[in-house]
Amino acid sequence: MSEQMGTSIVGLDVGTSRIVAARRSGGSAEYGSQLNAFVSIPYSKMTENSLHRESVGHQIQGDTIVIHGNEAPRFADLLNLEMRRPMTQGLMNPAEIESVPVIRQIIESLVQSECGPPKVCFSVPAAPLNAEDSLTYHDATLRQIFSDLKYEVRSVNEGMAVVYSELEDTNFTGVGISCGGGLCNVALSYLSMPAMSFSVPKAGDYIDASVAGVTGDLANRIRIAKEQSFCFNGHFAGKLQQVLTVYYDDMIGSLIAAMQEAFSNSRRMPKLKRPVPIVLSGGTASPKGFRDRFEKQLRASDLPIEISEIRLARDPLTTTANGALVAGLAEM
Ligand SMILES: Nc1ncnc2c1ncn2[C@@H]1O[C@H](COP(=O)(O)OP(=O)(O)O)[C@@H](O)[C@H]1O
Ligand SMILES: [Mg+2]
């Protein structure tokens, strides 16, 4: 009710794999999500009409029809087409000509509100450790889309969004980690202030592609099998489980090595008075046993800060969107 009276505020996680929107409704948060992917099929009036009747999200682009979001995998499978992705490794893909209209459509479908243009707080990844800041194109393009849609926006670092979502009990002090499709994003927060953040370009897509390289399957098939049945169970249920475990371990190892390196930079580190928690979130952190595996590798490493506990976020797939909403509600 109150939302219809005022401007609504939306937290938006613009991820390589999925775009997730969070808004407050009553006392709790409400989520919507769409796969950040599309397929493109030749235009015909009959196909257009059928898609319309089935309420399948699509748009006409010249002589093709673009089907985006959650419907994309079904059509890709049905028509034996490769699914295309507007983003790669956490950023808008400048080489994909359809990326801007597709992302715009997905955002519009998730954010639309009945009470005028909403205010949107969207997540942005951090630059990779030791790499030049490569976010300019991504950030400017998203802002252009929002400006065309007449949304008022601000952005929040993705790792910080994890902290805002999950670490109210430590007064927003601790490490937020989002393990997504293209990137793992890490932020160290001290009393809600960002002390440092970086990304690691190894996450779910890296696991899928690496496993596919070993087994000879398509990466998309590996992704589906991974999402449906992978867990760390300590013994190998089959070849695929074993290969997935190898690359999951590889990814966790790279993430921890990057944390070790970043947190050793004493010039940028806040002087923490007590041990701080780590929160793990994102689709790649969801398989059963991930937290334990991460903890085991972390305990074996020698991280230059003291960790009080390692938690899995309450709902790993919506953490970033929820944190962006928390930031939006506080700041906008
Ligand atoms: N249940 C699951 N088990 C394992 N991996 C999953 C699961 N659900 C999603 N993923 C993987 O998580 C990644 C996407 O995570 P997400 O947090 O949505 O990423 P992004 O922020 O990059 O969009 C993909 O690699 C996907 O395959
Ligand atoms: Mg994400």
> What is the makeup of the main sheet?
5 strands, mixed
Count of helical stretches: 11
Indicate the CATH topology of the domain at 169-312.
Nucleotidyltransferase, domain 5
The distinct ligands, each listed once, are: adenosine-5'-diphosphate, magnesium ion
- Which parts are unreliable, with pLDDT below 50 for 5 consecutive residues or more? 1-6
- What is the class of the domain at 169-312 in the CATH system? Alpha Beta
Summing up helix and strand content along with how strands pair, one would put the structural category as alpha/beta
Strand order of the largest sheet: 3-2-1-9-10
Radius of gyration: 20 Å
Distance between the termini: 20 Å
The CATH superfamily title of the domain at 169-312: ATPase, nucleotide binding domain
Average predicted local confidence, pLDDT:
92
Shape label: globular
CATH architecture of the domain at 169-312: 2-Layer Sandwich
Key words describing this protein structure:
332 residues; alpha/beta; five-stranded mixed beta sheet; 11 helices
Explain this structure to me?
The protein has about 325 residues and is α/β, with parallel strands linked by helices. It has eleven helices and 15 strands. The strands form four sheets. The chain has a five-stranded mixed sheet with strand order 3-2-1-9-10. Strands 13-12-11-14-15 form a five-stranded mixed sheet. α6 (about 160-165) crosses α11. Magnesium ion (MG) binds near residues 15, 178 and 180.
Layout: helices, strands, pairs:
Blueprint: H1 2-5, E1 9-14, E2 18-25, E3 28-35, E4 38-42, H2 45-53, E5 58-61, E6 64-68, H3 72-78, E7 87-88, E8 91-92, H4 99-111, E9 119-124, H5 136-148, E10 152-157, H6 158-166, E11 174-179, E12 184-190, E13 193-200, H7 204-215, H8 219-229, H9 239-263, E14 276-281, H10 290-300, E15 307-312, H11 319-331
Parallel strand pairs: 1-9, 9-10, 11-14, 14-15
Antiparallel strand pairs: 1-2, 2-3, 4-6, 5-6, 7-8, 11-12, 12-13
Helix pairs in contact: 6-11, 7-8, 7-9, 9-10
Bound molecules: adenosine-5'-diphosphate (ADP) and magnesium ion.
